[in-house]
Amino acid sequence: MMGHRIRRARPADYDAVIGVIDDWWGRAVVHNLPRMFLDHFHRTSLIASDEHGISGFLVGFGSPSDPDTAYIHFVAVRPDARKAGLGRSLYDDFFAIMRAEGRKVVSAITSPSNYTSIDFHRSLGFAVAGPVADYNGPGRAVIVFSRGV
Ligand SMILES: CC(C)(COP(=O)(O)OP(=O)(O)OC[C@H]1O[C@@H](n2cnc3c(N)ncnc32)[C@H](O)[C@@H]1OP(=O)(O)O)[C@@H](O)C(=O)NCCC(=O)NCCS
């Protein structure tokens, strides 16, 4: 990926991430990323940056309960850096980390209205299932993605 450096996250990255997240998403999503994700899953999360600062991030982890499975909780690329392969690079680096841990499957979810996320995951070879009704409680359907690492 030309011009972008990807590294493992650190807990202190939380403040930079949370400061841009609503702007990059185009709506309020700050409540979906409490600080505990960076405090406890920074080792398997990734930060991309370029000469303008943070350009993307991925928050993910290997399941502590299922040794085969990894989960991507959050991903975003700075609006001016999109459609140039950075999201794919973040996923590729996460897959490599998870492959090295012996993980077999990566999963993620999104809301049924997030067509960008659905197209993005389909392009990356994820199987797309759903909407799964009541997945996160009554009336809260989600789309479920899964892919081998
Ligand atoms: C989703 C997101 C991370 C993609 O990042 P990106 O760097 O633009 O993605 P890439 O350039 O690596 O694209 C990878 C593939 O996804 C596809 N894709 C990316 N954005 C797309 C869009 N808006 N519509 C359709 N396809 C898209 C690309 O065409 C590409 O496929 P290809 O390689 O077969 O051409 C970015 O759009 C984003 O941050 N969106 C807002 C936050 C969000 O919705 N996150 C997803 C939550 S699960």
UniProtKB/TrEMBL annotation:
PROSITE patterns xrefs: GNAT
Keywords, ordered alphabetically: Acyltransferase, Transferase
Annotated GO MF terms: acyltransferase activity
Coiled coil: none
InterPro entries with a match to the protein in the record: AcTrfase_GNAT_prd, Acyl_CoA_acyltransferase, GNAT_dom
EC number: 2.3.-.-
SUPFAM superfamilies in the record: Acyl-CoA N-acyltransferases (Nat) (SSF55729)
Origin: domain of life: Bacteria
Protein name according to UniProt: GNAT family N-acetyltransferase
The organism of origin for this protein: Nocardia halotolerans
